[in-house]
């Protein structure tokens, strides 16, 4: 009788334990279901875009979505390949992720193409011309499932900088990728502005990474300097551009500070961590239900900060212009 009673007690305890375990598993699954997943596609692994992603996660956290606690992050890097970014976006949609983020124009185009039928919200980071890319109808009223932050290059400030550093120069060389809408837009703007500063523009278009070195080798000997846009393909292959410029004895000007850290002479550049942070805050508002992409204006960031590489300037025999004596020397960051 006692053995039978013990068995019943053991059975009851085991049953309670099973019920508690089942309840814990159910609660854990319910909790996990309440945590949204944000898919981030970074188009290429270069410092400018790394800064965008870092800033985005910071901004998301400031909006209450902390990675591993109140949001899950599915980060993918397309390694500069449009086919990869297209596939990554489609996989994120198939998994039912709450919001997609495209870091750089090609990744943003992939995210938008994969979600425009389902309506899953998109937030883009560092897309210079979202209208030309076909992601929004207008910056003021996107009227699609996408919005975000545009890195608008202040080309007038950049031309002022170049003219101050190189008062005798005449020809600006440009390498650009023919499939990047932001590069086409920037080239058109530069061609319009350059004559006001006494410059001509000599541009060569490339279609992919394999063409950058050869195009740079052709361009560098026939211009006085090369100026970079935020062209992902070109920036991802910056070392090849710098090598060609070094052989020709000319400087390369960057579009943001990381390019100067990595060997460009100077920039009037945008802070890409701040660009990402602003996009992260927009994403948090959308996840909260406090905003929708359709009616959230695209934020245009054009504030710039001058920076130069003292080591590169010394190597080229170029003095820091008086007008830019307050510019930050980022040589120490190398």
Classify the beta-strand content into a percent band: 15-25%
Separate helix tally: 12
Q: What Rg is obtained from the alpha carbons, in whole angstroms?
A: 25 Å
CATH class of the largest domain: Alpha Beta
The stretches of 5 or more residues where confidence is low (pLDDT under 50) are 1-32
Q: If you consult CATH, what is the topology of the largest domain?
A: Rossmann fold
Distance between the ends: 81 Å
Give, in order, the helices and strands.
Answer: HEHEHEHEEHEHEHEHHEHEHEEHE
Number of E-type strands:
13
For the biggest sheet, the summary is: 6 strands, parallel
Shape label: elongated
CATH architecture of the largest domain: 3-Layer(aba) Sandwich
Quote the average pLDDT.
90
Overview of this protein structure:
It is a single chain. The protein has 12 helices and 13 strands. By secondary structure, it is of the alpha/beta class. The chain folds into 2 domains: 35-152 and 272-301, Rossmann fold (3-Layer(aba) Sandwich); 155-269 and 305-333, Rossmann fold (3-Layer(aba) Sandwich). Residues 1-32 have low confidence and may be disordered.
């Amino acid at each position: 009788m006692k053995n039978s009673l013990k068995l019943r007690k053991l059975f009851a305890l085991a049953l309670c334990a099973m019920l508690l375990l089942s309840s814990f598993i159910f609660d854990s699954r319910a909790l996990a279901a309440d945590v949204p997943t944000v898919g981030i596609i970074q188009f290429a692994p270069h410092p400018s875009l790394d800064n965008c992603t870092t800033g985005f996660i910071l901004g998301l956290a400031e909006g209450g979505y902390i990675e591993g606690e109140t949001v899950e992050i599915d980060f993918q890097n397309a390694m500069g390949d449009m086919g990869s970014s297209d596939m990554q976006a489609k996989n994120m949609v198939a998994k039912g992720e709450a919001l997609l983020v495209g870091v750089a124009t090609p990744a943003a185009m992939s995210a938008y193409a994969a979600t425009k039928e389902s309506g899953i919200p998109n937030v883009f980071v560092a897309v210079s011309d979202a209208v030309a890319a076909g992601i929004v109808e207008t910056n003021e009223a996107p009227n699609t499932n996408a919005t975000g932050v545009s890195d608008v290059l202040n080309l007038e400030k950049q031309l002022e900088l170049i003219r101050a550093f190189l008062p005798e120069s005449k020809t600006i060389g440009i390498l650009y990728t023919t499939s990047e809408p932001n590069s086409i837009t920037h080239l058109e703007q530069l061609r319009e502005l350059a004559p006001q500063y006494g410059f001509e523009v000599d541009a060569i278009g490339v279609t992919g990474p394999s063409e950058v070195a050869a195009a740079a080798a052709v361009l560098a000997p026939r211009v006085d300097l090369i100026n970079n846009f935020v062209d992902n393909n070109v920036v991802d292959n910056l070392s090849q551009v710098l090598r060609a410029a070094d052989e020709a004895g000319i400087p390369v000007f960057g579009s943001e500070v990381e390019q100067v850290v990595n060997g460009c002479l100077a920039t009037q550049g945008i802070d890409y961590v701040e660009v990402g942070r602003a996009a992260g805050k927009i994403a948090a508002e959308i996840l909260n239900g406090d905003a929708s992409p359709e009616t959230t204006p695209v934020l245009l960031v054009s504030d710039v900060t001058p920076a130069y590489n003292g080591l590169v300037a010394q190597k080229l025999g170029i003095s820091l212009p008086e007008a830019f004596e307050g510019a930050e020397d980022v040589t120490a960051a190398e």
